[in-house]
Specification:
Helices cover 23% and strands 33% of the residues. It has 155 residues and is α/β, with parallel strands linked by helices. The strands form two sheets. Strands 1-4-3-2 form a four-stranded mixed sheet, with helices on one face. A four-stranded mixed sheet has the order 5-8-7-6, covered by helices on one side. Strand 2 and strand 3 form a beta hairpin. The model has no long low-confidence stretch (mean pLDDT 90). This is VOC family protein. Pfam families: Glyoxalase. It comes from Allokutzneria oryzae.
């Protein structure tokens, strides 16, 4: 056994998100098929539900499980989210289309934005808000600031 001590296990980022996802087993398959995620580890509870899983996606990682209220791990609210997962991809149109075809709800249609990105936002069938984006061009900060100011002036 080697002594690979560090703040995180070898190969893991020092910051990894974790969230509760109802129907985690189906969510793992959805994230694999739609986003190209790789399930790195999975531990099931005795009843067959996902007690813990870790996923690699687009150079990042995140963890999930079924909601476990007894441990203070609860699922997403019926409406809204307090966070968004952003997936940067060269195939933004194809991934967005695949997400919608696989049951995601469009929150913001796919479009070119003032920030230089092509992006759209969906809520996957498991309650997570995903921004699917591709960086198309660098935009000067002054131009972005002006666009944001105009957006807020319009209400």
């Amino acid at each position: 056994m080697s002594d690979n001590r560090g703040p995180a296990p070898a190969g893991s980022p020092n910051l990894t998100m974790f969230f509760a996802v109802p129907d985690s087993a189906k969510a793992l398959e959805y994230y694999r098929e739609v986003f190209g995620a790789e399930v790195l580890e999975r531990f099931d509870a005795p009843d067959g539900t996902v007690a813990h899983a870790e996923i690699a996606l687009a150079g990042g990682r995140f963890q999930l499980s079924e909601p476990m209220p007894d441990y203070g791990i609860v699922g997403q609210p019926a409406e809204g989210n307090s966070f968004t997962m952003t997936l940067w991809t060269n195939d933004v149109d194809a991934v967005f289309e695949r997400a919608v075809a696989s049951g995601s709800t469009v929150l913001t249609p796919l479009a070119d934005s003032f920030s230089g990105a092509r992006m759209g936002v969906v809520r996957c069938p498991f309650g997570i808000r995903w921004c699917i984006a591709r960086h198309d061009r660098d935009v000067p900060q002054e131009e972005i600031d002006a666009a944001v100011a105009a957006m807020y002036e319009q209400g």
